[in-house]
Amino acid sequence: MATRTLNKSKRKEQSEYYFDYSLLFIVLFLLGFGLVMIYSTSSYEAFQEYNDSAHYLKVQLLACILGLFVMMVVANIPYHFWEHFAVLGYFLSMGSLFLVKTPLGVSSHGAARWFRIPGVPLSIQPAEICKLCMILFLACLICKLGKNVRTWKGIIVMGVAALPHVVLIKVITNNLSSAIIVLGIAALMVFVADPHYRKYIIGGSAAAIAIAGLVYAIVTADSTDGMNFRFRRINIWLHPELDPSDTGFQTLQALYAIGSGGIWGKGLGQSMQKLGFLPEAQNDMIFSIICEELGLFGAVSIILLFLMLLWRLMLIAMRAPDLLGSMLVVGVIGHIAIQVILNIAVVTNSIPNTGISLPFISYGGSSVMFLLIEIGLVMSVARRIQYREM
Question: What DSSP designation does 105 have?
Fold first, then answer.
């Protein structure tokens, strides 16, 4: 009798799976905070353009609701199920980029980066589809390569797999930041899968030296006349005050917002820069409004929250039942971490200005929906972690 009870207890223990409530709480808090900041940041502009101060809030709220619904569906589907659609997703995501050049394409601020599905109130950014599908495809590819991913041949195969999306995102949508993120996701996944770090350290050091040399050459150039647009942007990055009414305008306004916030900020809703002075305040530059209204305290709190999110994701990646689950979570870590770092670096003028949103907080329906789908994949991996393995 005692033996039967013990066996039953063991079976019950083995059937209990892990659910990361901390991860869910952090994501929900970021979404809620993002909605509050989007309303605070965009209400003036929304009233001017749509005669509805809550216009951007309503669109973002709809995207969050749809994203949360899909997230919970994905979280309850075994992640190995998606392995069968990795190749299909790879090519469909590549094909979705061409939709921006069709009558379905939507242009904004001179950039054609979205397409609209008839009957759906939200526009879709195909670059976000590419990020999700690349994570799935590269995770499956690493599993198939096995130990070969540690060889130069394996690294080249991974690079070749990511290159078409990187090139097409840049050429078709002219979205350099998304292309960099896709490339960064692939690099991080290969780096984590290969325990031999020396070649990556050497390669990274060489790339850093090359970039520093390029920046130095641009800075020491006698004139910016005839320079490539990207090169002029680097020159303005170092000296935004040289073109305060054009290329350096957004950067200077963002820095004004950050500086005027002080330690504790002006108070929620009290920003001055959002009143038509700072372009894309609710999108790429929302972190500067956070600094202005909530001060250094608010900015540091959000950064710490992102660090907590990445820490929870790292725990799930380390405890995943298999390599596929681990690589899926690593890809999501790479996506979120790179995007957060780039956004904050751009807003603080630590790197040249390039349009990139702050995950879960910036206005953008496509971004938040596909990020939530990625979180759903992570939760699916976490649900397969048994308590006896914790």
Answer: E
Q: What is the pLDDT of residue 286?
A: 92
The residues, any chain, with a CB within 8 Å of residue 49's CB and separated by 6 or more, are: 55
Q: Which of 67-76, 112-121, 255-264, 284-293 has the lowest mean pLDDT?
A: 112-121
Cα(37)–Cα(361) distance, integer angstroms:
8
Residue 8 lies in a domain: no
Structure tokens at 361: 């907080």
Closest CA to 100 of 170, 50, 157, 19: 170
Distance CA 24, CA 256 (A): 34
Q: Is residue 4 part of a domain?
A: no
Rounded Cα distance, 290 and 258, in Å: 8
Domain contains 300: yes
| Higher-confidence position of 240 and 266 | 266
Alpha-carbon span 238 to 226, nearest angstrom: 18
Name the one residue in this structure whose structure tokens are 């998606």. 82
* Main-chain dihedrals φ then ψ at residue 91, nearest 5 degrees: -80, -35
Q: Exposed, middle or buried: residue 86 (CB in 10 Å: 0-12, 13-18, 19+)?
A: buried
Q: How many CB atoms lie within 10 A of CB 51?
A: 8
* Alpha helices (runs of H) in 109-248, residue ranges in sequence order: 126-145, 152-173, 176-193, 198-219, 229-238
Residues 6 or more apart from 306 whose CB is under 8 A from it? Answer: 30, 336, 340, 359
pTM, rounded to two decimals? 0.89
Q: Categorize the per-residue pLDDT at 224 as very low, low, confident or very high, splitting at 50, 70 and 90.
A: low
- Other beta carbons within 10 Å of 252: 17
**58 backbone dihedrals φ, ψ, rounded to 5°:** -65, -45
Number of domains observed in the structure of the chain: 1
User: In Å, how far from its chain's centre is CA 125?
Assistant: 13
Residue 43 lies in domain = 17-389
Q: Which residues pair with 111 in a beta bridge?
A: 108
- Residues in the chain, how many? 390
At residue 6, what is the residue type?
A: L
Assigned domain for 377 exists: yes
